[in-house]
Amino acid sequence: MSAEPRAELTDEHRDPEQQVLDRIEKARRRKPKVKEERITLAHGSGGKATQTLVEAVFLEAFRNELLEPLEDGAELAVDGTRLAFTTDSFVVSPLFFPGGNIGDLAVNGTVNDLAVSGATPQYLSAGFLIEEGFPVADLTRIVESMSKAALAAGVRVVTGDTKVVEKGKADGCYINTSGVGVMRTDHRLGVNTVRPGDAVLVSGPIGDHGVTVMLARGELDIDSDVVSDTAPVHQLVADLLAAVPDVRALRDATRGGVATILNEIARAAQVAVVVDEAEVPVRTEVRGASELLGIDPLYVACEGRIVVVIPGARTEAALQAMRAHPLGEQAALIGRVADDPPGLVLLNTTFGGTRIVDLLVGDPLPRIC
């Protein structure tokens, strides 16, 4: 007697959880395409809309082996010397906030992109887009902050540009900085090198910068002592790499916060990142403000925090090295890398359940850097 043909499993017969995972995977396999006819704030948020814009428009036009990894900086070779090169633009509103301003933010942001690329920062450019009528005193204050931040980070501003536009054509002052650094190790860092069994660390409490900027806008009647965590992380990274040369990947958790970085890791390496919510360090003030704002601290930007992925066996060595530095005193192990489900970030919640931490389409806190 011949066997009955096996019926194909329909969506109704498959496990509901697997149905969700299958749909997510199917959506991610689609070729990126910008569906909107005009650019929105979401396209600059660091979330799904940004990712789609970058891949469908910019990567499609400029694709090459140096750009394609989409790391925080490109690695270049010039006459046998390995360099890192990065660029960033800053449009934070307001320009001045507790703990910093657009000037030191611009320096620290570019220094940090070089640092997490595995480079020693050396030189910066500074481009200013200034609105007609902007107070010279404010510009001087911003530039002085940049000078102090550059001195603290051991870098020099060696070239720049200034443009002035008509009143109403810019929001006071925007800054672009580019940076060059010398690679400090032959070991290659990258989110695509992450493997199951690796450990995921953060260098300290998350969300300080984004919440600080949001509250500084004065739109909400919330008093808080929280200040921006803007700071250069190059020495913290140097200490970490000296103690643990086989670090897999480093990222600074700016736009989109830690959640976005973890999704980039999971997607690039096709692994699962499993995070324990109870282990993620968040200041009480930041958690309280986030709850009032209705946002998750995992998605809130930092400007002096790094996400680190290392082989699991090197966890204690990495934590010791980070905690010995002032910017890493509260470094914590927040999760592990698994092999399934590939491409997803899972959060073990404090309530005992598990949920998917996906990329947001936009940013709940626009213009925070």
Give a quick set of tags describing it.
alpha+beta, 369 residues, single chain, 7-stranded mixed beta sheet, disordered N terminus, 14 strands
Describe the protein:
The protein has 369 residues and is α+β, with helices and mostly antiparallel strands. Helix content is 31%, strand content 23%. Helix 3 runs parallel beside helix 4. The relative contact order is 0.17. The longest helix is centred in the middle third of the chain and has 18 residues.
Summarize the structure.
With 369 residues, this protein is an alpha+beta fold. The chain has nine helices and 14 strands. It has helices at residues 16-29, 48-62, 102-116, 136-153, 208-216, 234-243, 257-269, 284-293, 315-323, and strands at 74-78, 81-90, 96-97, 100-101, 119-131, 156-165, 173-183, 199-202, 249-252, 272-276, 306-310, 332-338, 345-348, 354-356.
Number of helices: 9
Indicate the proportion of strand residues. 15-25%
Radius of gyration: 21 Å
3D shape: globular
Helical amount among residues, as a percent range?
25-40%
Low-confidence stretches: 1-10
Q: How would you characterize the largest beta sheet? A: 7 strands, mixed
Mean pLDDT: 90
